[in-house]
Amino acid sequence: MSARLVLPDAEAAADLLTFASRAARVGDGNVRLQGRDGVLVVTAAPIAPQTLLEPLPTVLGLRVLPVDPELECDLVVAADALTPALDDPTAVALPTTAVTAAWAGVSPPRGGWTESARLSAAVLAARAQWGIAAVAEALPPSPGEEIVRSVRGHVWGAPDDELGGLPRGVAFAAFSLGFVSGEEEAVVRTAGPWTRVTLARGHVLSRTTIRAGLTPVRRTGPAS
Fold first, then answer.
1. Is the pTM of this model over 0.85?
2. Nearest 5°: phi and psi at 93?
């Protein structure tokens, strides 16, 4: 029998598979599964830089689900490799192999969050749809991967005034992962370089890119 995640009921199992199906269509298509103390944290990265020079923030989508209290795990798998367990509607079968993802090594803080603003779910949806249209309009026919990443970086990495200065990729993550629903108001919290946007269906976390530069040249030797 393959390894599996056992959830409290069929609804929770279906919830996990729905999130995974959405995550499979964005970013690198992987999800991180962290289970402990009866809680399963499922994370995807709709937006993440592949190189140090790429002008993209790290934007993570996070869903929290109940799980078997005895489960302890921390692994990254291809999202489309998660499948229903044929003999148990409350379980999700895991693939036989895990994968690696650079973004999985970047973890937001567990505490120290301070509320800083609120955002309308309708605004998140509108800015995401605007960005999707902007990317499609800017891409030439049959673009190469480098051009696609450049255009996506320009659109999704840009701060958006309607989002309180957050990168537009935050709206894309919330919209593409199915977190936006109805007339909800999202709570925005910050902790250091991280920002967390919380909706009823999940959280979107973004981290500003921190690049270390050269220190100023200092004169050495005896003073003149």
1. yes
2. -80, 140
